[in-house]
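Tokens for chain A. Residues wanted.
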């Protein structure tokens, strides 16, 4: 079963047009992902713009794997990066605890399966999937929680607290090492999740990933490596100081030419606001600089610079000197990050979620300034997983996954009304309408006797309708009590299918599925996800 994204309330008009009406958005994107006739043009342009970074980059990545034991396929792909006919299929994500929500894994599967598809279709090229670990980001609150379904079928959120205040500037999250409070988070998951035949295997992994004194980046890489290494996925850490040295030309150009860059981004963003929406609030300079107080946006001040929130000015010579000596302190924002990716790698495709597709529309002007080939933006697979017990509940009460996702329905009321001998909501609505009609008729007649009686009638109408609403609300509560078992089943389904009133893929961790089905769950997911189905997939397991 599939759902068109237009049926999902959170889908933006830009995303929908990108999927189904590309001519409307072609001013923001150079290539349609659906037009396979253009693929070779992109690959050939990348080949022509071949840089000398390939060998050095391949060696840096090998060094990043020095403390791991990558598969032969991964090692082969790392070496393939040196070849001029190798095209990278890129994706990336912030370093959420335990990988973040399910969509992280959908992005990776899409990049792997797209690589395999292209290898068969364009045999003269190599295609390698690469995952960019976005550890430079400093939004700790966004990545510090995990959502899962507990043993009572309740949606449970556990949060890692490091002892600092909310919104404290910790710097880049990838560098942060877990404190002893990570043990409390691990223990809470273990104590609340239902124990199964696969729990020990899951808990063993948690012991490796949620461990005091390892960094968030290391934890994330260990997880992704344990699941995807056999596929040949390359996991790339851009925080590496050697990588930052390679990026110095990009950072320098952004610092010196930001006015030109900013002008074009503002023009595009204004146009997007007129027709759709601009995903990212535009800043003059798309760079951050980290110091002992955290990670700070670089801002221009007349002919100098300063860090956001600080008064001290930095001259052009000083900041370029910093870049020359300490490039690891610099990092791109969300608009410059694609430029960094495509400067380092021969990127043919970037696998993106709906939000990323929107900010790529703002990024496009930068490609001409940096003389880079824009990759094709490929929508990641999107899915809701329906377990068999949940599917039985849906059948029992004549529901569909769409009923939970659609903003039009209150599923509990829908089910209770279906179970009631009479549809109470309809009956209350009819009663309201009847009272309004009769009271209006009465008011007209009474006004002929005395105009004051008309106002009195209208006042009485408000009181009567209010009492009907009170009766309606009380009847719903009585219904809920009468159908308590039914409500519990619907609530359970809601927690699984549409947790926190959001798509499952945006909220739930993978841990429930591995706990119930073992690590074979990922093999099943690989086989079930269709990367050529550009709709929301309903997958039954």
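Reply:
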């Amino acid at each position: 079963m599939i759902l068109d994204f237009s049926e999902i309330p959170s889908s933006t008009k830009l995303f929908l047009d990108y999927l189904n009406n590309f001519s409307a958005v072609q001013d923001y994107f150079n290539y349609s992902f659906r037009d396979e006739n253009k693929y070779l043009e992109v690959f050939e342009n990348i080949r022509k713009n071949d840089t000398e970074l390939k060998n050095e980059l391949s060696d840096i990545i090998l060094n990043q794997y020095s403390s791991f034991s990558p598969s032969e396929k991964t090692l082969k792909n790392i070496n393939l990066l040196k070849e001029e006919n190798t095209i990278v299929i890129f994706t990336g994500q912030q370093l959420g605890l335990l990988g973040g929500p399910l969509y992280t894994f959908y992005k990776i599967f899409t990049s792997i399966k797209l690589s395999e598809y292209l290898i068969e279709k364009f045999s003269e090229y190599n295609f390698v999937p690469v995952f960019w670990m976005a550890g430079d980001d400093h939004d700790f609150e966004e990545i510090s929680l995990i959502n899962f379904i507990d043993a009572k079928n309740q949606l449970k959120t556990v949060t890692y607290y490091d002892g600092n205040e909310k919104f404290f500037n910790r710097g880049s999250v990838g560098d942060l090492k877990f404190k002893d409070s990570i043990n409390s988070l691990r223990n809470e998951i273990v104590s609340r999740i239902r124990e199964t035949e696969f729990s020990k295997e899951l808990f063993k992994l948690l012991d490796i990933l949620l461990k005091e004194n390892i960094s968030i980046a290391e934890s994330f890489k260990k997880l992704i490596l344990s699941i995807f290494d056999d596929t040949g996925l390359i996991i790339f850490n851009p925080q590496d100081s050697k990588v930052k040295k390679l990026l110095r030309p990009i950072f320098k150009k952004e610092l010196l030419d930001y006015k030109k860059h900013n002008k074009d981004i503002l023009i595009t963003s204004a146009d997007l606001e007129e027709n759709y929406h601009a995903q990212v609030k535009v800043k003059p300079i798309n760079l951050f600089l980290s110091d002992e107080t955290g990670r700070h946006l670089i801002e221009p001040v007349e002919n100098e610079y300063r860090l956001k929130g600080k008064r001290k000015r930095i001259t052009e010579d000083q900041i370029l000197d910093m870049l020359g000596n300490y490039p690891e302190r610099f990092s791109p924002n969300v608009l410059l990050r694609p430029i960094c990716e495509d400067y380092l790698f021969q990127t043919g495709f970037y696998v993106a979620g709906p939000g990323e597709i929107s900010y790529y529309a703002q990024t496009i002007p930068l490609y001409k300034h940096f003389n880079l080939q824009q990759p094709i933006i490929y929508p990641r697979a999107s899915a809701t997983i329906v377990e068999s017990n949940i599917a039985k509940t849906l059948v029992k009460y004549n529901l569909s996954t769409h009923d939970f996702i659609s903003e039009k329905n209150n599923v509990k009321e829908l089910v209770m009304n279906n179970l009631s001998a009479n549809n109470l909501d309809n009956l209350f609505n009819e009663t309201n309408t009847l009272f309004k009609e009769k009271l209006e008729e009465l008011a007209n007649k009474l006004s002929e006797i005395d105009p004051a009686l008309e106002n009195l009638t209208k006042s009485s109408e408000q009181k009567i309708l209010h009492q009907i609403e009170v009766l309606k609300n009380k009847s719903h509560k009585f219904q809920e009590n009468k159908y308590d078992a039914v409500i519990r089943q619907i609530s359970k389904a809601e927690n699984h299918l549409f947790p926190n009133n959001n798509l499952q893929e945006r909220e739930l961790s993978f841990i429930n599925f591995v706990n119930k089905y073992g690590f074979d769950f990922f093999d099943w997911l690989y086989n079930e996800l269709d990367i050529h189905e550009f709709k929301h997939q309903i997958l039954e397991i």
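The longest strand covers residues 86-94. The mean pLDDT is 93.
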